[in-house]
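Blinded run. Sample ID left blank on purpose so nobody reads anything into the name before looking at the predicted structure. Input follows.
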Amino acid sequence: MRVTALLLVTALAARAAALNPPPKMGHSHQGEAFDEGPRQRPVRMEGIGRTPFPITTAHPEVQVWFDQGIALLHSFWFYEAERSFRWALKLDPECAMCWWGLSRSASDVERGKAFIQEAMKRRHKVTPRERMYIETWAAGPGYDFFRGDRDEKFRWGLEKLVLTYPDDLEAKALYGLTNLGGPTRLANDRILREVLAKAPDHPGAHHYRIHNWNYREGEQALDSSAAYGRVAPAIGHAHHMPGHIYSTVGMWNEAALAMDAATRVEAAYMRDRMVFPFQNWNYGHNRNYLNYILEQLGMVNAAIAGGRELMETPRDPKYAKTTNWYSPHRQGLWSLARTLVKFERWADLLNPQTIPWGETAFEKTWRFYCEARAHLGLGNLDSAEKAMRAHAAVDTKEATQRRIDASGDSYLTKIHGIMALELKGLLLLARGETLAGLTALGEAAEKQYQQQLEDNDPPSYPNVVYLNLGRAYLRAGSPKLAVEAFERALDLVRNDGFALAGLVEAYAEAGRLKDAERAWARLRYVWADADQFPAALQDRYQVPPVDESPRPQRNYLRTSLEKFGPPHWEPFAAPPLEAVDAEGKTVSLRDYRGRNVILVYFLGNECPHCLEQLDGFRKRRSEFARLNTEIVAVSKSPAQAGLDGVRLLSDPQLANMKRYQSFDDFEEIELHSTFLIDRFGRVVWARIGGDPFTEYDFLLKEIERINGLDSPAGRASRSAQ
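Blinded prediction complete.
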């Protein structure tokens, strides 16, 4: 009987293990939802604003981390907010509101659902106010910011929360967030002002007011734009969003200061937390927007350099594919192409070395448009027609786009159609078919005008088509119509230098000399620091610069921004490596100076996935060696003689793993990680997580690209451009 019972217990245990297998090594023991997101503990952050939010918790320190997470959420810093909430949960796993905070921070919908369900399981342990927050988010799908926050049930729940607890500033701020823009934005502004009346430095209220008035009537948010960066100076987005408002109202110097500060704050954060641009969408977005603002200030060379900087940052097969809307590579490609089109750098656009175009529908759409514009600008009509046919053949319906408009068309489909119409008009004009050309160009101009009203983040179209229309009217001898076109462009982009330059000529030809002088005075202010003025306008009018912006501005070039951080992202210095080999010899990165190193942290011989990874590197050892690259693998196990081409080292105390963040502080487990360290001892790429990295071909291509950037030819090429 005892034997039978023992066999039965053993069989049941085996079945239970099969049904509930233990997590794979390196994966979270709390479920798949925790495999993503931060794996290291947070630090106390200053300069992020204060938004006290009392909750029920058994651990006093939890309130500190929860409040930090809430302040970060108010600035859309979801990744760092999640880090704070995770640590709070480590201290108090039964804190229902910490689970609620995680659901708001989640990087995708499914994770958000998983977290809010955990909060629901514990809602009976909290106050009625907290319970209402949890149930409101669970009812609506409030965990999905981009869609769920506009769910009707969710709005009703928040409305009830505000009515039930009229003194709860957080409820009012979140209600304001939920109703951004649209037909209720005046009423929405009033509720956010109620928050600021009691908490003048509330970061969320200032942030949401800026979003509420973004793109139209931006003057309404100038006070919050001036306050937000001051209230939360350590958050890049707190500088970025005021840059939106300043751009909307044509305050280009202030816009540049705001967006440059945002870029610097993000660069400092990435340096200090060992984060890469492909992991931080804010950086690429900030830099692209800054490049656009530099264009508006006439600083073409700085804008070109900024676009190239984005394109040269590290890439990653998971985060930085060119189909990713905010990947640095895509932002850089978009930025550089826009700058070259706007400043008519036709030869650069036709040089295949300038932009390494890929094969996505997005890239092909832009590539063939740029080539057609360049050929038209140079008078090569046959080549322009060929590029236009290639442009027309791009199937934009195949592209998976994040942005879909009310008609169901993707962003790319709409942009492609406007481009095709603009190119048609320009080609007809070049052939001498003036009336047909002006008609097509006018239709394209109005479509692009309407498109930019809704998509100005920065503008996703390479130029304002009304500017081309105005110049076409001037060539056709119709200055009055040219004035209308340039004024329309100036209405779309306030204080636009290109529109002002066009108006100087159009007003003069129309006999409106006082208006021409006024446009020239405005242009002198906007382009005071431009690389060059239009040659035809030099010294035409002897009038001083005039700024017609709604408020006084500082000068961008003469205002120091060093306190916010470095002006560019750069690879960070590799942390020290001090591990021992099979002979007991201490090995450090100094031993590899002058060579690239692939540094792998693996979980020992008991991890079959790790062994497969190392064998994959072994098989490609000659390919990596050809690129001046050594492969070093470290684990806590005693070092062995090693694999052929892979040096094995031991780190029994996990000191190196922790320095390289290859360790989960929340669950205190080792993580798989792979680092690429260049020949100067800088970390230029890394992947840390639950699974070993095995995309060897990607690493080979990335090393080859990085080697090329550091070569004399690569440096000379960038300098020339």
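Unblinding after everyone has recorded impressions. The beta strands are 572-573, 579-580, 586-587, 596-601, 629-635, 647-650, 663-664, 669-670, 672-677, 682-689.
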